[in-house]
Amino acid sequence: MFSRKLIAIFFIILSVLLLPACGAAQPESATQSNQPVEAQPEAAASTTEPAALEEHDEAPEPGLAAMDLTPVSLADGEKLRVVATSNIIGDMVQNVAGDLIALDVLMPIGSDPHAFQPTPQDAALIADADLVLANGLNFEEFLDELIANAGGEAVVIRVANGIETREFGEGDEEHAADEHHEEDAEHDEHDEEGDEHDEEGRHHHGGADPHAWMTPYNALVYVYNIETALSALDPAHAETYQANAKAYEAQLEELDQWVFAQIETISPEKREMVTDHDAFGYYADRYGLKIVGAVIPSYSTAAEPSAQEMAKLQEAIAEYGAPAIFVGVSVNPNLAEQVAADTGTQLVPLYTGSLGPAGSGAETYIDYIRYNTTSIVEALK
Ligand SMILES: [Zn+2]
Predict the structure, then answer these.
(1) Residue 235 exposure: Cα atoms within 13 Å on the Cβ side
(2) Domain locations in the chain?
(3) Which residue has the higher pLDDT, 80 or 57?
(4) Bigger pLDDT: 318 or 47?
(5) For residue 59, how far is its CA from the centre of ligand 1 (angstroms)?
(6) Could you give the count of Cα atoms lying within 13 Å of 105 in the half-sphere of its Cβ?
(7) What is the per-residue pLDDT for 193?
(8) What confidence category does residue 312 fall into, taking pLDDT thresholds of 50, 70 and 90?
(9) Which of 173, 223, 230, 247 has the highest CB neighbour number within 10 Å of its CB?
């Protein structure tokens, strides 16, 4: 059942572009239009027939062939230099590569990816890298400029490439969670210019929801792309990358099933989420939750909520009658206590764009999914 996504990864080449050698600020699309394999991603997007799981194992060959990635020539004992943008992607890379590569991660634990500003040190990492692994889907708004300024020769892979994208707002409010499947493929090609979710000044993504890593199901695609890229650039270790990826994918498949089982313990009429950050669309779509509202973006880091913020929050609580509002982990505990005391509604912290710090219980991607799922189930059950 996973392999429809995985087949789509053949077309990972969409996300491959060789960086301009020095400072040419070419937008991604312009660069890609020079790639001979440009047209293939549309074929991937229009693949509507789910393929059988067994086909997964046959997928890599055409994918690798199409990618046209040249192995990096590494001196004896020299490691492939890899930069991951988010620490979630970094954890996936770690699972595939272990210590066979030299890995750097741009976004620190606990940082807000949407507010991330690269430093000169980040540019230096990019300049030295052989491979940059980014989410794509406009998640890293800083990336094109960073790469253009940094120069270097890194290959850039957008690891979300090949997932079945959803648009912001799909599945919310009046939409049922699962009525969009047929339309998705067509939407994918037309969303590039969209900017539908910035009423609150929080999201400046295009129309496609970038938070694709929020399901282990999509993470399988990420891992496949990561493994394919590593194996192509560092073929000496390809067997290990493939074996590690396979083992990790088995864990992700198990995790996916575990999340289904957990959500099923919530009675169907209670499977509704109110959130403060529209990051759970893929998760809700897959596991049968409904996003009934996204309230109050980013009030959470303020030391004290303003009267206006409190009023808005209380309004939302009254409107939705929700037992819980799911908020970013940086929420002020005092605010959560005050809201619970005033309204009886819990503010439940979830992890979104970053793994948690040591001791949080969300230090790895798998633990992060478990942490969020357990928190959701406990709050809604
Ligand atoms: Zn986000």
Answers:
(1) 7
(2) 3-256, 263-380
(3) 80
(4) 318
(5) 30
(6) 18
(7) 36
(8) confident
(9) 230
Write the class of the CATH domain 263-380: alpha beta
How far away, in angstroms, is 203 Cα from ligand 1 center? 7
**d(CA 15, ligand 1 centre) in Å:** 20
Query: Confidence band (pLDDT; 50, 70, 90) for 316?
Result: confident
Q: In what order do the strands lie in the sheet with 272-275?
A: 290-294, 272-275, 324-328, 346-350
Domains 3-256 and 263-380 in one fold: yes
Euclidean distance between CA atoms 350 and 199, whole angstroms: 22
Mean pLDDT (the chain, rounded):
76
Distance 51 CA to ligand 1 centre (A): 30
Helix (H) or strand (E) holding 76: none
Is the pLDDT at 305 greater than 70, yes or no?
A: no
Partners of residue 156 on adjacent β-strands: 17, 132
> What is the whole-number distance in angstroms between the Cα of residue 187 and the centre of ligand 1?
20
- Ligand 1: distance of its center to the CA of 280 in Å? 9
Instruction: Report how far ligand 1's centroid is from the alpha carbon of 210 (Å).
Output: 7
pLDDT above 50 (res 352):
yes
CA dihedral 331, 335, 336, 342 (to 10 degrees): -160
CA of 209 to the centre of ligand 1 (A): 8
The CATH number that domain 3-256 falls under is 3.40.50.1980
* Residues 6 or more apart whose Cβ sits within 8 Å of residue 264: none
Query: How much of the chain, in percent, has pLDDT values that exceed 90?
Result: 53
Rounded to the nearest angstrom, the distance between the alpha carbon of 110 and the centre of ligand 1 is 13
Task: Return the structure tokens found at 228.
Answer: 């394919």
* Per-residue pLDDT reduced to its tens digit, 330-347: 777 777 788 888 888 888
